[in-house]
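Render this sequence as a predicted structure.
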Amino acid sequence: MKKYDALYIFVGIAKDDALNANLEKALAEVARVGGTILTTESLGKRAFSRPMSKKDSGVYVKVRMELDPSKVSELVDRYRLVEEVFRVQILAVDERREAKIVAERAARAERQAKKEAAAAAVAVEA
């Protein structure tokens, strides 16, 4: 199993209830091919830079999943049949890059904590 990030675009959705129903239907396809959903993040409604298929905007949803690499093309083919999914893009997650980003965030947080501690010590002395 390998980790993937998928970006879904849903169009013609006015309510959150409709978005949740369409998202559940799309995520059911992942389970159908043997994958598991790790995280889901709604990025909100965004306007397209140019109209696509006479649509001006869509709701973007980012999903992280684990899936067998041989099933990715099957999943994309299944989404072509699901009318609720306007577009989908699936990208493999680079584990080394993810680990580097986490390490950089931890180092940045540590530096920030040291700065705050030094500023607090100066404030106490004054």
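Summary. Helices lie at 16-32, 72-79, 95-125. Residues 94-126 form one domain.
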